[in-house]
Amino acid sequence: MTKSSEQRMSGNAPYRRWSAEEDEQPPVTSVGELRALYDAGERTFKRAKLDGADLRGIKIPGASLLRASMKNAIMDGVDLMHVQLKGANLTGAKMKCCRLVASDSIDTNFSGADLSGSDFTGTHFERAKFDKAVLSGALFNNVTLGRARLAGAYLDGVELSSADLCELDVRPLCDARRVKHLSPSTIDARTVMLSYSHPRLKRFMLDCGVPDLFAEYMIDCARALGEPLIRSMMQSTFISYGGPDEKFARKLYDALRSHSVITFFFPETATVGERIGNEVYKGIQNHDRVILVCSRNSLNRAGVLHEIQETLDREARDGGATYLLPITLDDYVFTDWSPTSPSLAERVRTRVVADFRRTSRSSTKFDAALSRLIDALKIKRP
Length: 382
Known about the structure:
Elements: H1 3-9, H2 20-23, H3 31-39, E1 139-141, E2 159-161, H4 171-175, E3 180-183, H5 189-195, H6 201-207, H7 212-225, H8 227-233, E4 236-240, H9 246-258, E5 262-264, H10 266-269, H11 276-285, E6 289-294, H12 302-317, E7 324-328, H13 332-335, H14 342-349, E8 354-355, H15 363-377
Parallel strand pairs: 1-2, 2-3, 4-5, 4-6, 6-7, 7-8
């Protein structure tokens, strides 16, 4: 294996920022190159450029195509078992009868793709985009679809089995014909809050295994709350911090929860047995805001720098949306912070930073700072 391949394969460690040298490695640009490198033992093909490529017949189990560009690729019948497509762009791809099994497809863009008849068993589709995609006859078995987008998708004849539909707008599924429910699927309150306006939601919930009384009650509650209150309740946060600031982060986590804010705090929220890197990535991508704890103790930690970069990348992908919400415990972010990438500090400092300085000794100051933070979280960000 080449030194280049070895370097590219070394970027899997959790909480580790990709180095400049790795980012400069030329991406794979042809199917032939992909095959050759894979056969030589390479598994990481970050940001591969395979737009319009004919990948039929290719076998690359375990490969990582993180943030690859594969627009209009031809992939009918391809076996993509255990292939990572996190953040990849597959708009317009031809993927009929694919076997996308146990795949990491978080934040993947399948808009306009033809995925009819495909098997998605065990795949994570959090924040995936299926706008106007063809999914007729696809099998969603033991999949996770939290925050996926199904607007305009053709879903007739899809099969649902033990699917996690939490925090998903299921109105497109309510519109679809001949949806088959092979076993109960999971729906939560946030699914109902996103979908309560659809006249066939209750029928869909019953088909997913929700008891009649619970379905009726949840829909009635959502209608009674109304859209403005629902929007404020659905804000969620991810706390990014360094280990030395865990005591403060825990205090903030408890305070946010007491105000009914859904909050990801790694020691309490991460799923046991999951890879740390995947848990962090999903946490950042699946929450409305990322609260960045700025302090001398946190801002130079590799994990925190990685989380800042992931959040800024997400903002860029979403057309300049605002997700990063910095709060400071000292003056370090304004004075001495000099990360390897100067633009990182500049992009954080251009935000309005919530002031939590000296709040450890004053509950009054903490409550005042928290109140301002809560107000900011009530504003729905694009």
